[in-house]
């Protein structure tokens, strides 16, 4: 059963590094374990950047293991330097506790609280706030060397760029390691999962448990998810893609997935849906207009997990009716283009010059930087964008310039 878990974990693209993979396999073969993932509480909601960790919690729970969701009420006060180029804003304890309460609502949608292995929620403020600094340094400081701490990416990258790293942030990795020890003692937690940028912090925790409790525990990391364009997943022109409907509507959430780059669709189906890996495998050779079908499938499946099946279907219907009402009809200027021509790819810039939505190359670039162009109601900022069949919805591509100028490409 649990061999299937690690196999699925890898097949879906979750696996990056493990401190002791053979031991973890043995562990999962012989028992149901408690495992944890930590989340900082710097905002009132998590965003899509945290979704891969949430899907890991969900997958392990599905196989019978108990997820411990560590909400960092204590470590958020300090601020994690991992992947950051500057110090985070320090929040008050009142703000952090308010964020924790809101964030729990996100997990409630993904994790099952009606089973024996229901999620356990912990706040590390409960133990970190009680630490005596002198005693803590004496008991645990001896296990950490400055030499090694300086080699971890979270520290090294900031220092290499000559960017400020406060002593407060430098302490973060020690506190996170102590979290693992505390959860091992209180919850018999045997596994920590985190993003690849947490590798150094996770190793510290594994080693601290080994030195302090003489026990073997495991660390496991997931890869950093970037788009095919090399940008951090979840960043859009409108800002973060929140997992809270008060901050981002279910429709906008659906649209985020619907607008996935062609090259990322299959990867996201594996990571962010519960379609079986065998089912997804049969889509791997899809191309052209069939990719649009997959984008809708992705949007529906991902939205269903967070907002429910009804909201996903409603978003799909709203999107379809919005596109059709805005991009069809005799009142809009249009141009027919052969399917064979658009299959080769048409440079967006040339098309805009041709339909007089730009007067020159310079005018095109200015309009582009001002986010004046849209394809199918989605802002386009790529100056080398090629229009292909994957941009067509029901054999049409709607081009917009500002709010009033629209043009329809009809694929024949």
Task: Briefly characterize the structure.
The chain has 20 helices and 15 strands.
Description:
- The chain is an alpha/beta fold.
- It has three domains: 2-222, Rossmann fold, CATH 3.40.50.620; 249-327, Tyrosyl-Transfer RNA Synthetase (Orthogonal Bundle); 334-411, Structural Genomics Hypothetical 15.5 Kd Protein In mrcA-pckA Intergenic Region, Chain A (Roll), CATH 3.10.290.10.
- The protein is built from 20 helices and 15 strands.
- It has helices at 2-11, 21-30, 51-62, 75-78, 93-110, 125-128, 133-140, 146-149, 153-160, 167-170, 172-187, 199-213, 250-258, 265-272, 277-281, 290-307, 309-327, 339-344, 348-354, 361-369; strands spanning 17-18, 34-39, 66-71, 120-123, 189-195, 218-222, 235-236, 239-240, 334-337, 346-347, 373-375, 378-379, 386-387, 396-401, 405-411.
- Helix 12 links the parallel strand 5 (189-195) and strand 6 (218-222).
- Helix 11 (172-187) crosses helix 12.
- The protein is elongated and about 75 Å long.
- The termini are far apart.
- The model has no long low-confidence stretch (mean pLDDT 87).
